[in-house]
């Protein structure tokens, strides 16, 4: 897994590439979010458009990230869900928890 970080209109966008699975990938995402929160960056958009696979541990990590950000007074939203990730979130009823967007401009605007 690789995570690229960029800022657009004050919103931190994490472009996630690869697989979100048990082990390194989950830890890397968790550490990156903690860094951002400590730096006062609380509006975070996870771009999952280049995520090829998410296992149950990865889903748990997404929920954990959401909870951590929310508890710190921040907001975490999802962008560009692949068909597989969207189906997984639908099956687990998590599509109702996460705000997700297909258009980055609309996603960024939703934080205003």
The CATH superfamily is STAS domain
CATH architecture: 2-Layer Sandwich
Q: What structural category arises from helix and sheet content?
A: alpha/beta
Determine the number of helices (DSSP H or I, runs of at least 4 residues): 4
Topology:
Elements: E1 2-8, E2 11-20, H1 24-38, E3 43-54, H2 56-71, E4 75-79, H3 83-91, E5 100-101, H4 104-109
Parallel strand pairs: 2-3, 3-4, 4-5
Antiparallel strand pairs: 1-2
Helix pairs in contact: 1-2
Jot down its keywords.
single chain, 112 residues, alpha/beta, Transcription Regulator spoIIAA, 32% strand, globular
Concise overview:
This protein is an alpha/beta fold. The chain is built from four helices and five strands; from the N terminus they run E-E-H-E-H-E-H-E-H. The model has no long low-confidence stretch (mean pLDDT 93).
What does this structure look like?
41% of the residues lie in helices and 32% in strands. By secondary structure, the protein is α/β, with parallel strands linked by helices. The chain has one domain (2-107): Transcription Regulator spoIIAA. Strand 1 (2-8) and strand 2 (11-20) form a beta hairpin. Helix 1 (24-38) packs parallel to helix 2. The model has no long low-confidence stretch (mean pLDDT 93).
